[in-house]
Amino acid sequence: MDLTGLLGPSRPLPVQVRPMGGESTGSFVRRLGRANGLNLASFLERVGQGEASQDPEQVEKYPQYTEMKMNAAGRTYLSVLSGLEVGLLQWALPSLADDLLLPGTGPAMWQWPWEAEGGHLVPWCTSCGHRRQVGERVWLMSADGWQLCGRHLRWTDDSRSTDPEIVSVAALPACVAAHQDRLRLRSRFKAAGEELFADACQVMYRWWRYAPDTLVWVQRAWAAGLEARSARAVPLVVFPEAVKLAWLMLRFEQAGLRTPQDRGRWLVRVQHQADLWDVDFAAGKTALLQWLERHSSPAATGGKAAMAGRRWLPLAERHNRIASRTGSLEQRSCMPAA
């Protein structure tokens, strides 16, 4: 590593920690500092020149509210202190991606805005932490507002609630199966699969708002130990239907048939599935119609061009104009937030 002209640290800290895949930068920095007996303020002093938080004690006290941002020089400083190459840090810590760095090529700068950019701060499964001999809380920078651990059947989210802090899904086999089904969607269709899942989530959240007392959703909330009408319960209780709806949306895009008659036939298919789910179709029809309207025109480019690009499936033209390729689940959907 070339440190020519670097005014910051010149060697790694004595005790090193391993970043977890998807970890927030702030979480990793706290763990690295504590392993070396440094609170956040002391750690920032060791980093070199820079712009520290106005109140590092508050930042350290509430890790679930804020994510650390830095410029390229700050990232280089962190690379030196951690003993890890910049490329490895970028791979492990999503907020260190080039497009999320603070602007400027001058001295190292770091900030702690009270709203995480491009995702949600979600606690990592503590059982996974114990398995990897990590004894303190790790916070992930997640595109979703939640994480489901298929190994330990734990659901964590960004609600910051401690009642319960970690939700067991052991009594929710439909949610566990949906998790695996979603992973298959992501694996096979990459960005297109994730964007359709994001669309399906926004549709299902609105669906829930019109029918929150749907028995299957109420039962799932109770099985998870959550209040049935709480906002926290919504992503979990509609998760199975959201994944199934994402696959139905995928089939619509694959067929490439978008006449009013084609859209009507697809809607009938969703209605049939809603009956099987024991969910009131009428409560979600408006959101489904809005999704169909935003997917009524095919992609501007041909299928072969899209296949050669970043995704394996060309999505509708209007969807592509609205949805972001990166960022949070809400940003990756063409649907308005519920």
Polypeptide structure, described:
This protein is mainly α and 338 residues long. The chain has 2 domains: 25-122, no CATH class; 173-322, no CATH class. It is 48% helix and 7% strand. The protein is built from 14 helices and 7 strands. The longest helix has 38 residues, at 173-210. The radius of gyration is 22 Å and the shape is globular. The chain starts with 24 loop residues before the first helix and ends in a 16-residue tail after the last helix.
Element layout with pairings:
Layout: H1 25-35, H2 40-47, H3 56-61, E1 69-70, H4 72-82, H5 86-92, E2 110-111, E3 120-123, H6 126-131, E4 139-142, E5 146-149, E6 154-157, E7 167-168, H7 173-210, H8 215-223, H9 234-237, H10 239-255, H11 260-277, H12 281-294, H13 303-308, H14 317-322
Antiparallel strand pairs: 1-2, 3-4, 5-6, 6-7
Helix pairs in contact: 7-10, 7-12, 10-11, 11-12
Task: Note the main attributes of this structure.
2 domains; 14 helices; disordered N terminus
Oligomer: single chain
Mean pLDDT: 88
Note the beta-strand portion: 5-15%
Report the total helices: 14
Shape: globular
Helix-strand topology string: HHHEHHEEHEEEEHHHHHHHH
Query: Low-confidence parts, pLDDT < 50 over ≥5 residues?
Result: 1-6, 302-311
The largest sheet, given as strand count, sense and whether it forms a barrel, is:
3 strands, antiparallel
Number of domains: 2
Query: Which secondary-structure class do the elements indicate?
Result: mainly alpha
Bin the helical content.
40-55%
Number of strands: 7
